[in-house]
Specification:
173 residues, alpha/beta, two-stranded antiparallel sheet, 43% helix, globular
């Protein structure tokens, strides 16, 4: 899995940066880290579909298990979005064995990531946080079921539906 990070995320996790071509890569994600109520809010967004995973209360000690934490949250979010077990297993089996990081690719994806953060802030301010778990599955589900638009509202879709399409197209069957 290749995660392209904003400057705030890079400053927090201090990864080794590896450049990769992630155009049409089903394993490419963007990440942004912001502070909310003196805790870290991490939002991961799938580049192709805008499928979102939300974490709140991320600490430095979570970084050593970040790949496992992301995979667990991804499985939970996929199950909430009614992805089949076969698709989940195929996605996880085909993914790269380690996380790689780079700087964000372009402003368009950062703008989309900022919209995901706005929606996350909205749902977390109305429904609250899960204090006992860093994974905020209700916020992820909310963001993944909202209609998002591109090309001046010419193309509109739900991220979870688009993610289903990419799972069918790109992940080996």
């Amino acid at each position: 899995m290749h995660i392209q990070c904003t400057k705030a995320m890079i400053d927090y996790i201090k990864p080794t940066l590896i450049m990769k071509d992630t155009d049409n890569d089903v394993y490419a994600w963007h990440a942004h880290l912001v502070k909310r109520h003196r805790k870290n809010l991490l939002v991961l967004m799938h580049d192709l579909s805008r499928f979102t995973i939300v974490f709140y209360g991320l600490k430095k000690n979570h970084l050593k298990d970040l790949h496992q934490i992301i995979n667990t949250a991804l499985i939970n979010s996929m199950k909430q979005s009614l992805v089949t077990d076969k698709q989940i297993n195929n996605y996880l089996k085909s993914q790269p064995k380690e996380l790689t990081f780079d700087k964000t690719k372009n402003r368009r994806l950062v703008a989309r990531l900022n919209k995901a953060i706005e929606m996350t802030d909205h749902i977390l301010s109305t429904d609250g946080y899960y204090e006992d778990n860093i994974e905020q599955s209700h916020a992820s589900a909310f963001c993944n079921r909202l209609i998002v638009c591109e090309n001046n509202y010419k193309v509109c879709y739900k991220p979870e539906e688009k993610f289903h399409e990419y799972l069918d197209l790109y992940v080996e069957k």
